[in-house]
Specification:
Blueprint: H1 6-28, H2 50-131, H3 152-157, E1 164-165, E2 168-170, E3 181-186, E4 189-199, E5 212-214, E6 217-224, E7 229-234, E8 240-246, H4 252-264
Antiparallel strand pairs: 1-2, 2-3, 3-4, 4-8, 5-6, 6-7, 7-8
């Protein structure tokens, strides 16, 4: 049998060496089966196993999810906060609009109307106070000689006299009042208009006295400059009748009383005194 050459030996040993090298390499790799026992610690520089990779990936995914959830929660909180702020602003604007729309006109109207109402109320109260009759004190009249006060002429005349003479209304007399006497005053009092019936002939009335005829009645007037009054004496009836009128009261009192006298007492010729 021929001897094999070195080259043949080398070639023949090559597969075994290769297998041996592969086995050795396989034993030395960290991921191969049987590379190390369960008690061996990994050496520094060794690459992590597939389980470590999975755990690291899972941890990274969990952290990513947590971070994502945290950001999402922060974003949701921010959106909620913005929404609340927007709602608050909207409510505030709405309340302001409602106040301006519903309350402001009412307040303005009230502020404008209240002074007007107060002014009107004051004016109305003043008008009522001016128009309301004033409670007048009873009027005191002094006695004068009136011998025919209880005669038929005065008894016929007095009930026919009106309650008003122009702006003057019938006054209450202090008792005991002189007989056959009437008086009228303005609503706020003042100097009265007085009528006396059944008097004696006036001393001033004589044949030379001028007479004034008013509504069919002959009157003789006597002035009182100090008292600013004029007393008219009806001199053509059964008895003498005196009507005292304050200055400025007008002529309606004399005219009204003239009509009453002419309607209730017959006329006769005057009988003046001697000169």
């Amino acid at each position: 049998m021929a001897d094999s050459t070195p080259e043949d030996r080398d070639e023949a040993s090559t597969p075994d060496d290769t297998a041996t090298a592969d086995a050795t390499s396989s034993v030395g790799e960290p991921g191969s089966v049987g590379a190390k026992s369960s008690g061996d610690e990994p050496r520094s520089g060794d690459e992590p196993t597939s389980d470590d990779d999975a755990q690291a990936a899972s941890a990274a995914a969990t952290a990513l999810d947590a971070d994502s959830n945290g950001r999402a929660d922060d974003a949701a909180d921010a959106d909620d906060s913005d929404s609340d702020d927007a709602d608050s602003d909207s409510d505030s604007d709405s309340d302001s609009d409602d106040f301006e729309t519903h309350h402001s006109p009412a307040l303005i109207a009230t502020a404008v109307a209240l002074p007007v109402v107060l002014i009107v109320a004051v004016l109305v109260a003043a008008f009522i106070a001016l128009r309301a009759p004033v409670e007048r004190e009873p009027l005191a009249l002094g006695p004068v000689p009136a011998p025919a006060a209880d005669g038929p002429a005065c008894q016929a005349l007095l009930p026919a006299l009106p309650a008003e003479l122009g702006d003057y209304t019938k006054a209450t007399l202090v008792e005991p009042a002189p007989p056959a006497t009437r008086a009228w005053q303005l609503p706020d009092g003042g100097d009265p208009i007085t009528l006396r019936c059944g008097l004696d002939r006036p001393l001033e009335f004589n044949r030379a006295s001028p007479l004034t005829v008013i509504d069919g009645v002959k009157w003789f007037q006597v002035r009182d400059e100090a008292g600013k009054t004029g007393t008219w004496f009806a001199v053509d009836r059964e008895t003498y009748i005196a009507l005292t009128v304050p200055d400025g009261s007008g002529t309606s009192a004399v005219q009204t009383v003239s009509d009453t006298i002419n309607a209730n007492l017959p006329a006769r010729e005057p009988t003046p005194g001697e000169l």
